Amino acid sequence: MSVLARLNARLSLARASAPARDSDVEVLVAYALALGLRLPCDYVEMLFDSQEVEILVEKRGCLRFWPPLDVLEMNAIHRLQDYIPNAVAVGDDEGGVAFAYMQGHHGIGLYRLSFADPDSAEVVFVSPSLEDLLANGVGVDRLFAWEERSEEHTSELQSPCNLVCRLLLEK
What we know:
The chain is an alpha+beta fold. It is 35% helix and 25% strand. The chain has eight helices and seven strands, in the order βααββααββββαααα. It has a seven-stranded antiparallel beta sheet. A hairpin with a 3-residue loop joins strand 2 and strand 3. The longest helix has 13 residues.
């Protein structure tokens, strides 16, 4: 059973798509290994349950996990490995903040970083694992640091492309 079936009370599943194909997950796992990072089993297990997931976090924001091939595309588009070589961005908040697995100052885990200016010195540790975050609520408060967000990010949240997320948050 995937961690999606055991969400913490502070989280709610807004959307989950069909499971990822084995071949797509294999490509993603190989990509991460080539970067020297072993993707956590709970994350890989979630992909086999649903390849694209949107989770509402206490009506404060969205946490979106991308399908495996989108992970590869987003990392290439934003050239994340040019800035943080041992990181693999796996999702975002639909507003300029990415969530990545990486070896950081708290060990391997899920970290929050800016897509606009990725810097390993400025990443924020969120949780040691997806299980801890989604099932146990460890790190939920670190997902969104609203007071740290810039005006640029605020305007991104108000853009039409984030309408669906904002409507879900208003429920």
